[in-house]
Each structure stands twice: as structure tokens, then as C-alpha cells.
Amino acid sequence: IASSLYWARENARTIRETISLEMWRVLNELWLWFNSPAARQLFQRDRPTFYRRLSDQCLLFAGVARNTMLHDEPLDFMELGTVLERSGQTARFLDVKYHSLGPTRADIEKPIETAQWLAILRSCLGIEPFSKRMGEDLSGPAVAAFLLLDRAFPHAVLHNLDRARACLAQIRRGAPAAVGAASAEALDGLHRDIATLDQESIPTLGLHDLLTQVVERSAAVCEALRSDFFAPTRA
């Protein structure tokens, strides 16, 4: 967390002319608080409140960005990076369950497994959305399907791949067809493979293998973006 906050602030400082004053203020104040004696005392005294404040400030930063920046290419790239990172992180959260408990079936899950699925939903801010969508069906297959395939939940893999495609299409609009072509091909392939899944097909494919693909192919899309837009090969 400390490293992420440090580099977020450093990166923001180097592009200070691109981001808004309000974004810089939220990020800088968070960094100053995080390194203050008050934050250290809170960490020792009340760790849940400490982490909740961190989470709230990150959500505040995201909201401030969308409501204060110009909605043009810099924000498109910022959102593109965010949603690709989020799709990979959601897959990692799900895979934590696989490695700690192994594959399970909904009809024989133990109480500890139910608690683990609840923890994964909580880590993705998904307990209430899951309840609204799935009702009382708190099982491994239901949680996996929700976090992978729900197109309306902000932390679901498919929702973020939808948004990634929209961001990349906006960035490529008006540019020559070759610009970003490799990135679009990699992203479209990943999106297509996830969009064709349903809850019944996930156990057949194997949850761990599927999640590993999401993580690795999301990283491959990011590498393609780097090559296409930030380190293009000279002709």
C-alpha cells in the first residue's frame, strides 16, 4: 500500500498539468495523512477504521477524477488502466479461494467455505450487489459467476472488459487503423472468451485455469498497450 501511494503521488506530480487541482489535493492529502503519526496510531488502535479510511479516500479520488478532469484522452487512458487492473485483481481474489480451499461444489460446501466466499465478496465491495442479484444463493459457483460475468457490477471481470473495450475504441477513434490494433486484438479475444461463458460452463473449464487466463491475458493486453502507445517501434 505504501509503495502504491508513493508512486501514485509521484506519477501525479510528473503530470501535474494534466490532472485537476482537486485530484492532486485528494491524493496529496492522503499521502500526508498516511505518513502522519495520527495514521500510525490509528493503525495500531483500530485497524478496520484505518483500512476503511484508505478505501474511502481511493473511492473519493476516483470520483473526483471523473468529475473534474476533461473527458478526453488522458482520462480514457486512466480509466483503461484502471479497469484492466481491476479485472486482473478480481480474478486474483477469486483464485485466493481456490488455493486456500480448493475446488468445491455448492451442495457440499462447508461453513468455512461460505465464510471464505463472503470475505472475497467483501474484498470486492460486492456483498450487497451480490445479494440483490443472487438472493440467498451464497455458493462458490454463484459467487464465481457473479464476479466473472455480471455486466452491471463494477468489480466483475466482464464489466471491466466491456469498459476497457469502450475506452480503447474511444482512444483509437479517428486514428489510423494500425494504431492500437494489437491491443484491440488482444482485448477483443479475452473479452470474447469471457462473454461466451455462463455459470454452468465455469466448473467444466476449471475455475483456476480460467482465472489464470484472465490474469495473464489482462497483463498481455497491458503490454500490448505499452507497445502500441507508449513505446512504439520506430519505422
Task: Describe this structure as you would to a colleague.
This protein is mostly helical and 235 residues long. It contains twelve helices and no strands. It has helices spanning 2-14, 21-34, 37-45, 47-68, 73-101, 111-123, 127-134, 140-149, 157-172, 181-195, 201-205, 207-230. α5 (73-101) runs antiparallel to α12. The protein starts with a helix and ends in a 5-residue tail after the last helix.
What is the typical, i.e. mean, pLDDT? 90
Largest sheet: none
CA(first)-CA(last) distance: 40 Å
Gross morphology is flat
Order of helices and strands: HHHHHHHHHHHH
Strand content: under 5%
How many helices? 12
Index terms:
235 residues, mainly alpha, 76% helix
List the helices and strands and how they pair.
Elements: H1 2-14, H2 21-34, H3 37-45, H4 47-68, H5 73-101, H6 111-123, H7 127-134, H8 140-149, H9 157-172, H10 181-195, H11 201-205, H12 207-230
Helix pairs in contact: 1-2, 2-4, 3-4, 5-6, 5-9, 5-12, 9-10, 10-12
